[in-house]
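Progress note, project year one: complex with S-adenosyl-L-homocysteine.
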Amino acid sequence: MNVSDSEVVARLLSDSGYRQCERLEDARIIFVNTCSVRENAEKRVMGRLDLFARMKKKDPGLKVGVLGCMATRLKEKLLAHPAVDWVVGPDSYRNLPGMLGSAVAAPLEVNLSLTETYADIKPFRGEHHGISAFVTIMRGCNNMCAYCIVPYVRGRERSRDPFSIEEEVKDLFAEGFREVTLLGQNVNSYCWKPDNHTNQGAFASDRGDRPDSLTPEDGQAPVTFAQLLERVAAISPLLRVRYTTSHPKDMQDDVLYAMAAHPNICKHIHLPVQSGSNNMLKKMNRGYTREEYLDRIAAIRRILPGCTISSDMISGFCSETEEDHAQTLSLMEEVRFDQAFMFHYSQRPNTLAARHYPDDVSEDVKIRRLNEIIALQNRLSLESNRADVGKVFEVLVEGVSKRSEEFFFGRTGTNKVCVFPKMDSRVGDYVKVHVNSCTAATLKGEIVTETL
Ligand code: SAH
Ligand code: SF4
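Model obtained:
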């Protein structure tokens, strides 16, 4: 999400005559894009700001702007930091060029918008130019998961105009990209309504390429996520389509059928569960039970055999007991997640949990439970990868492996990283790789010519 936002900022600034430089030491203005989801992420940013303050002492002309979620959360408090000249929240990036160019503009812009989607801004991909791109399809979040700060710092949910999304993806494909990941906090609630659409900056109505059947003027039905997915997938069979994040309470079968209908929609779903305990899920305000989550898993297995599933887990949420924790472990065993992102609970100011529930699981217990979750997931990931040894997968070549110049890496459609000798393949090619061995994190194999 932040990579995608930084690319929007880079476009706005490059259009105003600013140039991105390779090395920090060469910069005259430094922007830090920030995340507030966990306290550790914020601590890292504060460490960077201290470094920039030291740089500014030696070089008083250097300027620093803080962007993103911490800007909304901390506002003036950030301006008080000796490094900081501007504080600009996620919905105010259009103001940036004006702020930089003017001595009179206020250094703080953190208002959240009900409509801003940056639909008309073509992200400047710079160093991320290559094979795989992130495309933001919506901003903000309307859920109120008790632990989560996102709705407070990124505002209400709004869906981006599908025409501008399709246009951006077509351009990316023409530029040589071969994979897009559609991004939103809860993509399943993507819904673009033509008639009450108010986005400023959405594609101008005089665009010649807008399909007649979906012009806003004729009050057509809303565009759902499943429909958007199909439209993006139809751009080219050579374009891989991924998306994240799905929410278990909103993930309907229509998305699964859309995935089944298009071979180029990758067969991997990120479906964060957070906890396996109904008590915790209720307290987290997630809007589903363990049984409902397992029903969604069953639907994925039924409609998309072979689809991999990844998840997010939080250990040590407020009042979590050993029994609640055991339920998370048992759910993981039951689902057999292929991959997971795992965190220990970090209380965030002003969230529902911070206001209503004591953060009463000790740090030691949170970390011990997290380590148990990680150990189990390592085993499940290894088992999942071992089950792929001996199989052949189509892999999109993404780049040279970090370990060796002689090897490429890429991912399978099921989102597994695969490393293999280059042979005569090139970045951007689809190759068939026979998997010979694996670790919990990577498949290793070699290119074969046989058909799948
Ligand atoms: N919208 C997505 C992702 C939100 S942030 C979703 O609903 O899943 C990514 C992950 O960070 C979350 O899934 C959650 O597991 C974790 N997270 C969010 N707030 C957290 C907190 N206060 N402490 C620990 N982990 C948190
Ligand atoms: Fe946060 Fe929940 Fe929204 Fe995800 S769905 S961003 S966890 S509030």
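Confidence is low (pLDDT under 50) at residues 198-218.
DSSP finds 14 helices and 19 strands in the chain.
No further modelling is planned for this target in the current period.
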